[in-house]
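Justification of resources, computational component.

The compute hours requested in this renewal are based largely on the per-chain cost of generating structure records like the one below. Each record pairs the submitted sequence with a full structure-token output. That output is archived, and it is also reused by downstream analysis tasks.
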Amino acid sequence: MESLPHVLAEPHPSRLFVIDDEPSIRAAIRRFLTRRGWEVEEAEDGLEAMEVLVHSAPGYYDVVMCDLRMPNCSGVELHRALLDSRPDLVQRLVFSTGDVASSDASTFLAGSGRPVIEKPFELARLEEMIDHIRSEAPTVEAV
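The structure output for this chain reads:
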């Protein structure tokens, strides 16, 4: 009987899904991280993001970065929807906001247990945060 050669699956590149209604922020993050070997996908609001995220394979995205305040569907609403439909992605969420001082935002963020990066942020700080989330999230093989 002939034995089959072992085929090692190549690890997938790190993937970030960024959700922000500001095109300049999405573009800056995409440029910065693609230079560092990340694949970056993006959406301009929570509705567009949900269409992609609910159909993504478990483990496909290493980190999901989401602005709190956006038109159509906020980061708060997206978080709620992911808790119901894709709780595996909630552990991969990091929020961004320029409004961390508001009582609504601070109450939500404290209750969510997810990290937040305050706008404006340095891209090096973002890289540290997403590397930490990627290393802490449970490992799931992407399909």
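The mean pLDDT is 89. The first helix runs from residue 23 to 34.
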